[in-house]
UniProtKB/TrEMBL annotation:
Main location as per UniProt: other
Keyword Calcium: no
Organism: Spodoptera litura
GO molecular function: G protein activity; GTP binding
Family annotation (NCBIfam families): small_GTP (TIGR00231)
Protein's name in the database: small monomeric GTPase
Alphabetically ordered keywords of this record: Endosome, GTP-binding, Hydrolase, Lipoprotein, Nucleotide-binding, Prenylation, Protein transport, Transport
Cellular compartments annotated: Early endosome
EC number: 3.6.5.2
EC category: hydrolase
Short name of any one Pfam family annotated for the protein: Ras
GO term, biological process aspect, one: protein transport
């Protein structure tokens, strides 16, 4: 089963007699929820590469640095819910740090990324986690991504060290590789599963899901196949 599709086609969507959207396999699509997700981390840890791999299935060896932030969307289909991520990929350069609160404010999820070959980026990731815990929504789902796992021979941050830190702080944790696609879809899928899908969560600031309207559901409901 494929969970991801870059641009769902309206023609693939079916409806039942009541007009509710259905998955192509005939099962009714019960809920479509939208969440804001932000990526944070030091420059050159691979945030943009992770997003590009997740959204478009692509990897560029030489990725230009993000200026300010980039915005992309991607849809994940769970058993009874379609989750649409609004993804803000923030710049890691220090001069853009003051802009970060503008992007993580109201976010229901965050991925804090570090480079497993660079211990300093792990320390910086811890600072980002502290900032989110202090200033972001109390219910925000935070995932820690140890990127560049394809460079394990140059590892400076041990898996066990990062896992212990994640456990202590209640974080999701995976080592990822944007280059090989290892755990890229999985970390977004894990976040989608952990996010609350309550119908009453209309406020982004409160950390709840925003239910999409009929037209928006029509655009999102055909993502599963």
């Amino acid at each position: 089963m494929s969970y991801f599709k870059e641009k769902p086609a309206l023609s693939a969507m079916a409806t039942n007699r009541s007009g509710a959207a259905q998955r192509p396999n005939g099962a009714p699509q019960t809920k479509v929820c939208q969440f804001k997700l932000v990526l944070l981390g030091e420059s050159a840890v691979g945030k943009s590469s992770l997003v590009l791999r997740f959204v478009k299935g692509q990897f560029h060896e030489y990725q230009e640095s993000t200026i300010g932030a980039a915005f992309l969307t991607q849809t994940v289909c769970l058993d009874d819910t379609t989750v649409k991520f609004e993804i803000w990929d923030t710049a890691g350069q220090e001069r853009y740090h003051s802009l970060a609160p503008m992007y993580y404010r109201g976010a229901q999820a965050a991925i804090v990324v570090y480079d497993i070959t660079n211990q300093d980026t792990f320390g910086r990731a811890k600072n980002w986690v502290k900032e989110l815990q202090r200033q972001a929504s109390p219910s925000i789902v935070i995932a820690l991504a140890g990127n560049k796992s394809d460079l394990a021979a140059k590892r400076m941050v041990e898996f066990e060290e990062a896992q212990a830190y994640a456990d202590e702080n209640g974080l999701l944790f995976m080592e990822t590789s944007a280059k090989t696609a290892m755990n890229v879809n999985d970390i977004f899928l894990a976040i989608a599963n952990k996010l609350p899908k309550s119908e009453g969560g209309g406020s982004a600031g409160a950390g709840g899901a925003r239910r999409l309207g009929d037209a928006e559901q029509a655009r999102s409901s055909s993502c599963c196949k």
